[in-house]
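Hi D.,

Good news: the full-assembly prediction came through. Inputs first.
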Amino acid sequence: MSPKPLRPKALQRKLLRDLWGLRGQLLAIALVVASGVATFLTMRGSLDSLSLAMETFYEEQRFADVFCQLERAPKRAAEELARIPGVQHLETRVVAAITLEVPGSSAAISGRLVSLPESSSGLLNVPYVLRGRLPEPGRTDEVTVHDAFARAHGLQPGDSLTVIVNERRVGFRIVGTAMSPEYVVTVAPGAVVPDDKLFGILWAREAVVASSFNMEGAFNDVSMSVQGSDSIEGVLAAVDRVLDRYGSLGAIQRSEQVSHWVLLNELDGLRSMAAVLPSTFMAVALFLFAVVIGRMIRGARAEVAVLKAFGYSDVSVGLHYGSLVLTVALLATFGGVVAGGWMESSMVGLYARNFRFPDLHAVLRPALVLQAVCIALSAGLLGAARALMGVMALPPAEAMHEPAPLAYRPTFLERIGLARRLPITWRIILRNVERQPGRSFLGVLGAASGGALLLSGLALQDSIGTVLSLQFDVLQHEDVSVTLGGPRGINAVEELRRLPGVRNVEGYRMVPARIRSGVRSRRVLIEGLPTRSTLRPLVDDHGRALPFEREGLAITETLATALGVAPGDSVQIELLDGRRGTRREVIGQVFPSFVGLGARMPLESLTKWTGDAPSINGAHLVVDEDQRLQLMRTLIQLPLVAGVGSKVDAMRQFNEMSAENMRFMAFFLVMFASILTGGVVYNNARIALAERGREWASMRVLGYERSEISVILLGELWLLTLVSLPISMGLGYLLAWGTLASVGSEMYSLPLVLHPSSYAMSILVVVAASVAAGLLVRRRLDTLHLIEVLKTRA
Amino acid sequence: MGEVTVHALRGVDLELHAGEFVVVLGPSGSGKSTLLNILGGLDAPTSGEVRYDGGTISAAVERELTAYRRKRVGFVFQFYNLIPSLTALENVALVTEIADDPMDPLDALRLVGLEARNDHFPAQLSGGEQQRVAIARAISKRPALLLCDEPTGALDIATGVLVLEALQRTNRETGTLTMVITHNQAIADMAHRVLSIADGRIVGDRRNETLREPRELTW
Ligand SMILES: Nc1ncnc2c1ncn2[C@@H]1O[C@H](COP(=O)(O)OP(=O)(O)O)[C@@H](O)[C@H]1O
Ligand SMILES: [Mg+2]
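Then the structure:
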């Protein structure tokens, strides 16, 4: 005999036979494991892909660390900034709000004209040219436009467009398209949703931009790279000190920069999803491995005894069953990696539409794949550990004996005297459920997991939908809003009111400010609104209008929490609109809001306070819908207007952007929920069949019909499914709560909202999956071997 | 697996009558169970006919066979085949619930001397007690035909005797045609009629002049 009896052919053949015999159940487990692996790879892979694209892009295009906008500073002020310790590179620019006319589009388009240093592509925030080139130094008629804007309008290098700067119309020729780390996501000032058709970024040489805005020898924007992340706070404070007298709006760091902030939020969301989704699958897989392998080994005690009696060691018998588990886990992982790779590239493809990176492609690091393999294998081994240890510890002689039959007793319901008239079949069902309460409970939990997962995913959609409908229907009653080039006298409101189609106008004034209470401080935009604002009401949690207090500052709950203040407390306010006055103000009111940090006060008090005559820098308009487009074109042409947006456009844009993401999400959620619930119910059914098929065959012999036996199998399964429904919904609610809390931040929060339709959808999927799984197993009752069971012992 | 045709039964021609207590003897593998399964509507012969009370069982479809078993046949198996989650009484009720003219389940248990154990689960009963519950279950529907496949096969002598007594009493009190399969010659002495099977054929069919009581049997 050869000295390697560990894995002889016989054992290997037996392994294959075992695998084949359990193929349905193992396939169900494999689907759960594969889904876990696939979601893990999708979420973490997308996270990697986005992070990598971001880091490379930021690094190669030298994205700045500190940014500051100001009114106007002479170039020599930059020398002072460069001397701030920690500042590595520094670049001054002229950045201006513009209005655009694009051939073939009648929309009211606004944008931003960004200067490039006269003779280089710059030190920081360098545009990445995709097509064509940057404007030639000295050329006054050349611009490079953001690639997303060019695509939205079908613009090519060689096309021309008109820019209205400072009331002058200037024709430019497009010489190229580019992307920029500053504008991975482009959101127009005041807008909620990015819209590439209505807002564009243009780059031109500094001389052109400066002369158009009367900024020769001066700048209104500065970016800096900083050495060592510890010095950022110091640099921010120093920059504020230097630029204070030049009308600074306050220095900000990357995390406050709009584009980067949106990206960070997305990455955070992905990170929390990457934790929740795969863990759910792996927990269910663990449970399924435990019950299926446990059952298989219990059913194979006699075989194990024979193997051991023939001299197979405990280890080789353990290895035999262990390798079955590993085979399933590995095959599943393989499937999961393939599916995950595909899902990840779809997801990254969706991201590529909303995040403008020159090179965003799906990456799947081998280390990540290896991690997924390890997770899947450990789920399998941990799940089967008890059963495997049991089989190894089983002495050959004992294995020959049957395991002691489990004792039954009347159910709780019967013991307390209820259900005395329960039909016999239901007594069988209930007693079996009660006999192994732990397993029944885990089975219920497993079946519930699918619905919970689906519900929590739908909660995210419901929540976003609610915030938007609250925003659009309750908080924002205007049809069109206008941002002005700068503060204007209050008579601008009358000027707007006279335009054809305008039915109502409310002017507002937005002032950036830093609000302090003790050592805590936050940077917010203070919104000055008419005291009796009807277009921008304050509402409570239920959407009911709150009166807007005349006295003091009204702040959001999040801001109140961040600062640790309550109505009646006073805070210190430092205006950052170039007039940098500070003063104390009493908190008059705290109101709920999803937009995180925010503050508002009556327009008159705010402007009195900034020292101006009553003034506005924007207005909300109610207009006749059939005159809206014409009116928006008129508005954007007005010298005082810097940008125009409409609610209809924002809603449309949001729907376009999110509809596909939501369909993508919903599709996978439903699939995963079905796999989880279906997989658990199917395995529960198969195990019931394996353990009690004999019992049912006996009943068939005694004259019970197939349909009467089915009641026992399906009744038990569907009873457990029924019990799992409320648990599923409860878990889903908790999961939704956790997810939303982890996705939200100080900048915004998502309310926990679940529409009845989402509950209905989750329940429907759970019920459908368990009905389908039950029926799949029910077919096997037709082939129950009646004679076979009579020959063998229980 | 190779294609080997096994003839479990060959050329069997047999008539059984109401009220008879029949013991079928034969070595293991001789076809006893096959005969019983065919008579009970669990199996169908590849050729030949089985008639019962004017009907042809061998031509019946699945649904008709189920109804036949449900209404006419009582089974007792070597391994009892009780439902572990049901008490003794409930195991009997399992059958009476679907029968046309059943006994009271408790009466059926009384016939096998187990009325006091009616609320015990199979796990709380000895093998012999379980088998007596199985007999109570089989007779409770007042079957026309009581088929018992090695009912004492898994039991010791004393317990086996109790089980046989229960069968005999039932046969006497209800006039049920009772067929007991065994490879145990001794049991034949309590039967009205003894069939011997060997190699799939009926090789003997005799009637006992005097019947012995089960407790007089030894093996
Ligand atoms: N499912 C089956 N497939 C093939 N042969 C069978 C099957 N069941 C029984 N047999 C064969 O039929 C013959 C009679 O079996 P059986 O009626 O169980 O014998 P007994 O009950 O007298 O011991 C035996 O040779 C047995 O091997
Ligand atoms: Mg037999």
